[in-house]
Amino acid sequence: MSSESKNEEWGSKLGVILAVAGSAVGLGNFLRFPGQAADNGGGAFLIPYFCALFLLGIPIGWAEWTMGRYGGKKGLHSAPMIMGAVGKGRLARYFGVLGVLIPLGVSTYYVFIETWTFAYFLKYLGGGIGIVQGTSIAEQTAASGSFYASITGSAGDGTLFTGDSLYTVISWVVVFAINIFFVYRGLSKGIEKFVSYAMPIMAVCALIVLVRVLTLGTPDPALPEQNVVNGLGYMWNPDFSALGNFKTWLAAASQIFFSLSVGFGVIINYSSYLRKKDDVALSGLTASATNELFEVGFGGMITLTAAFVFLGLSGTTAAVATGSFGLGFNTLPVVFAQMGAFENFIGALWFFMLWLAAITSSLSMYQPAIAHLKEATNWSHRGSTTVIAIIGTIGAGLTLWFTAGGAFWSTVDFWVGTYLIFVLAMVQIIYFAWVFGIDRGWRELHQGASIRVPSIFKFVMKFVAPAYLIIVFVGFTVQNFGASLQASWSNTGSRVAMLTIAGILAYLMVVTIIGEKRLRAAGVDIDDRNPAD
Amino acid sequence: MTTLGWIFMTTSLTLVWGGTFWCFKKVLTSPRGEKEESES
Questions:
Q1: Is B17 in Cβ contact with A13 (below 8 Å)?
Q2: Which among B24, B32, B40 has CB closest to A286?
Q3: Which domain holds residue A367?
Q4: pLDDT tens for each residue of chain A, 533 residues long
Q5: Which of A233, A274, A450 minimises the CB distance to B2?
Q6: CB A59, CB A465: distance < 8 Å
Q7: Could you give the CA distance from residue A322 to residue A314 in angstroms, rounded to a whole number?
Q8: 8 A C-beta contact, residue A142 and residue A160
Q9: Which residue blocks in A245-280 are alpha helix, DSSP H?
Q10: Contacts with A24 from chain B: Cβ below 8 Å
């Protein structure tokens, strides 16, 4: 290994926790969670939600933290090599390629969505997005929709490169440059330093918005039922009948799963830079708890309450039906427009907070690919970062061009950001519990641990989590795989997306094979013939 | 908001706020692993 790689590590315990939490906290915490809860039993949704947190999210997270630190002990930092060591062979190593494909693939469109938040933020700072206060809600919704369409280029391929939409491309250049700047600076001087400021600032922004929303009272005396307490009731009043529906339990598990970023390939990479006896049990729990604070503590209190107070029951229900992005980028600006003098301040604060949530996630998406390339080729950090930045630029260029109906990015999101995450998490927990061995994994988890994990989780990690993921994977594959694949080949944008995924996968496989040869020649124990525990 | 709504909301908020504070308190008061061990 290069000496540069050998010396790379986190500056502090808190730094790695905030980096993992920052990677997990994203737009879904503020936009997706409240919609899912409202759609699936309100307060009652929290029962399957917390069950999934303790039976799926936290245990798989612990497995990933443990595998990453174990790989780090052997000098390995990329998901393929770490998985190869944990799974003792080539098959596990090639499955581990998903741990690089997922973050790199998702980064191609995630930075684009991050750009929307940044563009909205700048527009609110400059006086708003063109919604005229005092006009009817329908007119305001139309103005908001028009701005949203212009920023996202949803009208057609290539439209972002014409007229006012160029604003998005320029914003993307700025956002991408900020990402690359911090990634260039490395783990402790770049990512860790950024998140150590960004996470507290994001919490303060969320707190200010929360206080503003909770003190809205009854803004329109003519509509007394549209008040804060009823808004909270819309989100939290439990409907226990939803618990009898399998869909509710599946939705809760999916929300936990994607929100915590387990099976994403970031935790395994980040934790490989820990020291041998650094705690992973408490760190994993703290990162998860931080994510839950932003999701339930802020996301569950702000978004729908604000929408209900100004749009009422039918307006909020309609907004939820438009999905996370419709709610966040189309409806909430209309809500802010009802706040009078506060409109631009709250709008800017809200989108700045969303931008921080997004950038703390996107920063984590390049690091696994950089580590993978460095490890395979022994190139410098700067050289590897440059190559990944070029790949990121090509991917983002395709995302910026193929915007019609969001086909390109939604195809990558479905296959890489949803389906493959399930696959990777399933593979990881099976290798951890059944090949590495649950007893060995349990001992490894507790090395240097600041807490003792209750032994029931040993059973959960060995049986419950793998069984759940296998059932969902098989069920989805049997029922939807063929149709989803066909849909992903139905138009130009989605076809280009599928080819892009294939291209990135081919690149990663080649680099992995090069890395295998180089590390073997260098005498590195990539198949774990001599355990490091 | 119904009484059950209040109960679900306050229980959930107590769990996430309390859990997060407990975790961070524990992290900030626990020592870190020895540095030299990572360099062997």
A1: no
A2: B24
A3: 3-521
A4: 444 545 588 999 999 999 999 999 998 899 889 989 988 999 999 999 999 999 999 999 999 999 999 999 999 999 999 999 999 999 999 999 999 999 999 999 999 999 999 999 999 999 999 999 889 989 999 999 999 999 999 888 999 998 888 899 999 999 999 999 999 999 999 999 999 999 999 999 999 999 999 999 998 899 999 999 999 999 999 999 999 988 889 889 889 988 998 999 999 999 999 999 999 999 999 999 999 999 999 999 999 999 999 999 999 999 999 888 888 999 999 999 998 888 999 999 999 999 999 999 999 999 999 999 999 999 999 999 999 999 999 999 999 999 998 899 999 999 998 889 989 999 999 999 999 999 999 999 999 999 999 999 999 999 999 998 998 888 888 888 899 999 999 999 999 999 999 999 999 999 999 999 999 999 999 999 888 87
A5: A233
A6: yes
A7: 13
A8: no
A9: 246-259, 266-271
A10: none
Q: Residue A479, Cβ neighbours under 10 Å: how many?
A: 10
Q: Do B33 and A6 touch (CB under 8 A)?
A: no
In a domain, A507, yes or no: yes
Name residue A473's amino acid. F
Question: Where residue A212 sits, what CATH number does that domain have?
Answer: 1.20.1740
CB contact under 8 A, B20 and A300: no
* Residue A531 domain flag: no
Within a domain: A408: yes
**In this complex, which of B9, B16, B27 lies closest to A13 when CB atoms are compared?**
B27
Task: Indicate the pTM of the whole model.
Answer: 0.93
Testing the interface with A: which of B20, B22, B39 to mutate, by most A Cβ within 10 A? B20
* Assigned domain for A278 exists: yes
Number of structural domains in chain A: 1
Query: CB distance B34–A12 less than 8 Å?
Result: no
Contact criterion met (CB below 8 Å) for A84 and A99: no
Residues A270, A274, A278, A283: what is their CA dihedral angle, to the nearest 10 degrees?
-10
